[in-house]
Amino acid sequence: MACRSACCCGFGPVNEDNARFLMLALLIILYLLCGAAVFSALEHPKEKQAKEKWAQRFEHFSNKYNLSRDDLEKFLRFYEEANVAGIRVDTTRPRWDFTGAFYFVGTVVSTIGFGMTTPATIGGKIFLIFYGLIGCAATILFFNLFLERLITVLAFVLKSCYELQRRRKGVLPHDGRRDPNPEGGEGLAGWKPSVYYVMVILCGAAVIVSCCASAMYSAVEGWSYLDSLYFCFVAFSTIGFGDLVSSQHLRYEDQAAYRLGNFLFILMGVCCIYSLFNVISIVIKQFLNWTLQKLELLLRCPCCPGKGLRPRRNTVMPGHVRARRNISIETDIANESDTDGRRMSGEMISMKDFLAANKVSLAIMQKQLSETANGHPRQSGSCSRQNGFSGGIGALAIMNNRLVETSVDR
C-alpha cells in the first residue's frame, strides 16, 4: 500500500519533463566544463606568449625614446578610449554616418551584436534599449515564420520524391489518384518526412551558403579562407564576437555589389543556422527521451514495477520499435500517440497548426494569469498539461509538442 504514494526505495515517481530538464542541465554544465578545458589548453599558451612579447616591446620602446612608463601607459589608455569610439590607425569608414548606423542596427535586430560599434551617448544607450526590444522581437518572429515556410517546402519536396520513388517501384499508379494501401504503414497517406532528413538538408544548405560567403570574404576582405569560415559561423549563429567584421574598410571595389552580397549572405546564413538549431534541438530532445527510457529500465524498483518515470509523450527507441513510428515534420492525427492522443515530440507543425497553437497557448496563459491575480488555486495536473509553451522547441513554440494535448483540453 505504501508504494502508491512513494517507492519503497524512498523515491516517488518522477515526471519525465523534470527528469529531462535536469539531465539536459547536467549535460550542458558538463559540456561547458569540457569546452572551457579545451579552449584553455589551446588558447592560454598563445595568450601568455603574446603578453610576454608585448612586455618586451613596451620596455624596448620606453628605453629607446626615453619615455617614462607612466606617460606611455597613459597615452595607450587614451588610444584605447579612441579605439572604442571607432578610431583606428588604419583608414576605416565612419562608424556613425548613415551607412555605418544602418549596419549597426542590422547587427542589433539580428542579435549578432559584433561589438565593434556601440553607442557612447546616454541618449543612444537609452534609445537602444527600446529599439532593440521591439526590433529583436520582430526579427525572431521573422525567423520563426521563415522556418515554418521552409518546413512546408521541404515537406512538399520530400513527399514528392517519396511518391516518385514508389511510382517507379510500381507501388503507386502513375496517375497518382489513389494510394493502394492508404491505411498501411507504407501507404503514402500516412507517410511523413523524417526530421533527420530535414536536419541533413538544412546542414547542407548552411554549408553551401557558408562556403560561398567565405569565398567572397576571402577575396574582398583579404582574410584566409579558414578565417572567413570562422567569421561565417560566428555571424550566422548570431554569436558575434567582433574580432572579424565585414564591410569595415573605407573603400571597396564594386562597393555597392559587395555590400548587397554581404547583406544577402548574412540574411540567408542566419535563417539557415537558426532553422538548423531548432531541428538539432529536436534531435537532442529525442536523445534525452531515449536515455531516460534506458535509465528507467535500469533503475526501476523491482517491488514497484508500475513506478518510475512517467512519460508524457513518445520517445525515440532503437530497432523495430523505432521503425514503426518515424519522427516527421508534418502534422497528422494518424501519427499521434496510441495511448493518449498526443503528438510525437519530434514532429514539426504546419502554419495552420502553428497559429492555432499560439492562440491556444495565449488563452491558457491569460487564464492562468487571471486565476493567479484573483487568488484562485490552479490544479497542478491540468496546468502542466495545458501550458502550451512548456513543451515547445524554438521561440514562439514553432516545434510545440503539445499542440494536440492543449487542443483536446480546450
TrEMBL record:
It is found in: Cell membrane. One of its GO terms (cellular component) is monoatomic ion channel complex. InterPro entries: 2pore_dom_K_chnl (IPR003280), 2pore_dom_K_chnl_THIK (IPR005410), K_chnl_dom (IPR013099). The chain crosses the membrane at residues 21-42, 101-122, 128-158, 195-217, 223-242, 263-284. It catalyses: K(+)(in) = K(+)(out). It holds the Pfam family Ion_trans_2. This is Potassium channel domain-containing protein. It comes from Conger conger. The lineage of its organism: Eukaryota, Metazoa, Chordata, Craniata, Vertebrata.
